[in-house]
Specification:
The protein is of the alpha+beta class and about 160 residues long. It is built from four helices and five strands; from the N terminus they run ααβββαββα. The protein has one domain: Trna Endonuclease, Chain: A, domain 1, CATH 3.40.1350. The chain is globular and about 50 Å long. The N and C termini lie far apart (about 50 Å). About 15% of the residues are buried.
Length: about 160
């Protein structure tokens, strides 16, 4: 006796139909991944603004298409951010892309996200050490001059 498949609920049927239509159209399948990437880029820029690290951080429209602006995020920080929002991650491939896009002197960082997971940052260990040294030096300066603590951005 062959086990029977559970009947689909209407919502599942609608999703299945949408998936088959998108694959038939060809171009329709590409819109969602680009939108997904754009949403994460907006979130990363917003986080940089809300944290106080860069009040002017913004998503770079047409990133890579404008000479001198290869990063996905426009920021005054000494970093170049490549944003990837995909279910399958290829961090070394993304890092190579970030490295090629980083202007001289900027630290390339890849921010990777996927559904239901807080974004992760991927960078060279030596760059991480450098950033922690800067943070430590800034912390000593803040303690010496009595500035307020940083804003929390954790969700």
């Amino acid at each position: 006796m062959v086990p029977q498949r559970a009947p689909r609920i209407p919502e599942q049927q609608a999703r299945a139909r949408q998936g088959s239509k998108a694959s038939q159209k060809g171009k329709g399948a590409m819109k969602h991944p680009k939108e997904k990437g754009r949403r994460l880029e907006l979130e990363i820029a917003q986080t940089l603004r809300e944290s106080g690290l860069d009040p002017d951080a913004s998503r770079m429209p047409l990133s890579g298409a404008v000479d001198g602006f290869k990063s996905d995020i426009r920021t005054t920080l000494p970093i170049s951010i490549e944003v990837k929002n995909q279910e399958t991650w290829k961090p070394l491939e993304y890092y190579e892309q970030a490295e090629k896009g980083a202007n001289s002197g900027l630290i390339p960082i890849v921010v990777m996200g996927k559904n239901g997971v807080e974004p992760f940052a991927f960078l060279k260990w030596s760059d991480m050490i450098y950033l922690m040294q800067l943070a430590k030096e800034a912390g000593n300066w803040v303690r010496e001059f009595g500035f307020s603590k940083r804003k929390q951005v954790h969700k």
